[in-house]
Amino acid sequence: MKNYWVLTLLLAGEAAAATIHVNNVTGNDTRTGASEAEPVATLRRAVQLAQAGDTIVLASTGVPFLESLSITSGHGGKPDAPLVVEGHGAVLTGLRDVPPDAWQRLANGTFFQPLRRFGANNPYLMGCKGRIPSSSGGLSTLAPGQHYWATNGVYFLPEPGRTPSDYALKGLLLGEGVAIRDASYITVRNLTCEYFSNDGFNVHGESRGLLFENIVSRHNGDDGFSIHEDVGAIVRHAHLYDNDYGIQDINASQSIYNGVLVESNRLAGVHLIGGLRSLVDARVRNNNGPQVWICSGSAKHLGFTENNPLARGVCFIKNCVIQGGDYGLRVSRGGSAVISQSVISGCATGLLADAGSCIHMLRTVINGCGDTELAVHNPAEAALSGNLYYPGRFRWGTAAFGPDAWTGYQKASGQDADSSIAPPQFNDQGLLRQTVSAPRSHTLPSPGLVAPLP
């Protein structure tokens, strides 16, 4: 009888899980959202109604949601009952019309609106032909057709003979797309966030058990995907592009990124500061600055000591393609990286290990870089084996070695005894076809990708 009542309670708990429907065209927040025919109108109302184990379902109406999805403490899930947000391909946007009648004309022909900028927010203006250029030197160098967003508001200098109303101006007037703070066991999937002045996806505080699947984050003012403080998260299949940073992950977070595509971001691709991360089956390409940049950080404000390995920053990279930019992989002082069976190509410098960093690289290809395939500054900890370089230019400490000084590099570094210089040849799946001069060993697999990227 006792077991019968336990089973009855468990089944009752499972039955209590609800589905809350949200439709930004036909919804009404006076409803409960219990069916597609009776949806609520806003994400805010859906989160208020949701309990652990519930599913919030967004209708893909073709009309972007003009709001953020904000989940804070007390509104998450539980280990056995996560809160699920099913996006169904819906889009959240922070883009809003800039009121044309609210511009104040200044004496020098510049126009001003008191749309304030806060903290890490980095808003910009959009016109009918796309993004309005920003003044790189601030207000003092503002040129016709440019804008500058100061902390007190936005300044815009139209081209001669034009006024702001000629541009159909819009601005990034909302901070984050998905914002989670101090809430755990949440799954967010099939959702796009775009044109937010801060981050498309932003996670803060102490959160565990977060899962993001099939997400897109683009055209945001700061990060495509951002984590701060002490967060445990998995990101699986994400496309992050045209942000300042594709991924920026800070402090003592524990993050896993699988199958992500990070490309064409304005400052860097993947920027990791402190924490414990994994980047696997990923493609990071054509971002400005470093493609993958690993740094030490501090989590002292979270109670971690300064010499805590989690605060210093560790990243495991496997089966990744990293292409373009200033540096393919940069490991700064205090940061640690293990990279295995990956390909770095087409960068100015393939791999840069700064003094005081730690880099372990095995069975990886670095080829076709503009300046140097490998640069390791002393005193950096390095363990390199089974790699393939081409054409083979190295900097070890203050010494430089060209392709004709391969044995000199090996002797000076004490590394890469079982590695070689040879032009890599890839098959149609991107896997390396071993060349005649590359090392063959029954104990070591060939360098390069372990499997085709998705």
Describe the protein's architecture and organization.
The protein has 454 residues and is mainly β. Helices cover 7% and strands 41% of the residues. The chain has four helices and 41 strands. The strands form five sheets. The chain has a 19-stranded parallel beta sheet that branches. Strands 3-13-15-17-19-22-25-28-31-34-37-38 form a twelve-stranded mixed beta sheet. It is globular, with a radius of gyration of 25 Å. The relative contact order is 0.07.
- Supply the helix-strand structural class: mainly beta
Count the DSSP helices.
4
- Share of helical residues: under 10%
Strand content: 35-45%
Major beta sheet summary:
19 strands, parallel
N-C termini distance? 52 Å
- Please, what is the average pLDDT? 93
Low-confidence stretches: none
Q: Rg to the nearest angstrom?
A: 25 Å
What does the secondary structure layout of this molecule look like, with pairings?
Blueprint: H1 2-15, E1 19-22, H2 43-49, E2 55-58, E3 69-71, E4 83-93, E5 95-97, E6 104-105, E7 111-113, E8 125-127, E9 130-131, E10 146-150, E11 153-157, E12 170-172, E13 178-181, E14 186-194, E15 201-204, E16 206-218, E17 223-227, E18 230-241, E19 245-250, E20 254-258, E21 261-263, E22 268-273, E23 276-280, E24 283-285, E25 292-295, H3 309-312, E26 314-318, E27 321-323, E28 327-331, E29 336-340, E30 343-345, E31 349-353, E32 358-362, E33 365-367, E34 372-376, E35 381-385, E36 388-390, E37 394-396, E38 399-401, H4 406-413, E39 420-421, E40 425-426, E41 432-433
Parallel strand pairs: 1-2, 2-4, 3-13, 4-14, 13-15, 14-16, 15-17, 16-18, 17-19, 18-20, 18-21, 19-22, 20-23, 21-24, 22-25, 23-26, 24-27, 25-28, 26-29, 27-30, 28-31, 29-32, 30-33, 31-34, 32-35, 33-36, 34-37, 36-39
Antiparallel strand pairs: 5-12, 6-7, 7-11, 8-9, 8-12, 10-11, 37-38, 40-41
